[in-house]
């Protein structure tokens, strides 16, 4: 139970701290509305499922100990986040030119994919899950409890 409370508190601080996921949801909500932001949030929640899967299978430790793979992930994540920032800046002027009706063209699947990619390629999220699943959660913790904690983090992020 102590592990769960520790993980829950750490996760709450991670979710509310400014970062790419937070910036994406804020941007989507203000620019396109709640529905698009919800689909992006669902994509971010699925990104958390991905990180939990990596952590539970031990793939995150393998990636962490392979500097080349870890650096490629960090570079791809940084490039993707920079790309999102650039698109955000460029689309601001484009939205002004096209009018507000153009914001309705954003598709749910695209919003979901943007959220998924933002979280999956976020180096901060990757490092967070490596830390949580290797330092906070012991090896003796039952796998079902680890899955429960992962599901909790995914659902709490979505909400």
Automatic annotation (TrEMBL):
Keywords: Cell membrane, Membrane, Transmembrane, Transmembrane helix. GO terms for molecular function: amino acid transmembrane transporter activity. The chain crosses the membrane at residues 33-56, 68-90, 125-145. GO terms for cellular component: plasma membrane. Pfam families: LysE (PF01810). It is found in: Cell membrane. Its main location: membrane. It is a multi-pass membrane protein. This is Lysine transporter LysE. It comes from marine metagenome. The lineage of its organism: unclassified sequences, metagenomes, ecological metagenomes.
